[in-house]
Amino acid sequence: MGALIQVKVDRRRANEILQVVSKFLKKHRIVRGMIAYSVLWPVGSMVQQTFEGKSFREFDWKRILRFCLYGTLIQGPALYCWMRVANKMWPRSDIRSALAKAFTEQVAFDPFSISLFLYAMTIFEGKTHEQARREVSSKFLSIYAIGLVYWPITQTINFGFVKPKNQVIYVSFASLIWTTFLAYVKAHPIDEETKEKVKVAIEKRYEHLKEVVEHVKHPKHE
């Protein structure tokens, strides 16, 4: 009988703790994003290392830790701040607002985010400012070109159909795929021929995005 009472008490305490945690996370959404990224970013690094043919015992745990620190302390808060700014600038949840947010993210937030990732992760590796600067210069365009395709689709869905309170979580899961890609690019050099192809692709993509935005602003009536 005493054991049964103790179990009920423990359950009650567990429920109380869960309620407190739930209220805290609802009030402080930035923490939700930080927790999500503290898991998803190192997992992305693990997935990428698995693609390299490494087993669990062969993982580069220092690299995984760097991804965990970056996701928790930098990417999570940065993305949360961007979401707040975007939702204040375009509070409506229609397709035009969603496209405007996605386009603005491509030309404003993403270049900052990619550059910060390459620079900070290189510094985390114990390298110098000059080495970090060269890393950004060498790999930025290649990452940005892929992002020009991937993120407009992802963020249009996010801004257009996902409730604001769940947007950071939604993007966290989309970021698992993106982080795996980032981990690959960070670990491998990019040749000059690829860089030239990327520049051409970015120019074409920008022209396409401009046409889409112009069409949304001024739709043609047949």
UniProtKB/TrEMBL annotation:
Keyword Transferase among record annotations: no
Main location: membrane
Pfam families, alphabetized: Mpv17_PMP22
Membrane found in the keyword field: yes
Transmembrane annotation, as ranges: 64-86, 106-124, 136-153, 168-185
Keywords of this entry: Membrane, Transmembrane, Transmembrane helix
Location relative to the cell: Membrane
Topology class, membrane: Multi-pass membrane protein
Coiled coil, from the record: none
One term under GO cellular component: mitochondrion
UniProt record similarity statement: Belongs to the peroxisomal membrane protein PXMP2/4 family.
Protein name: Mpv17-like protein
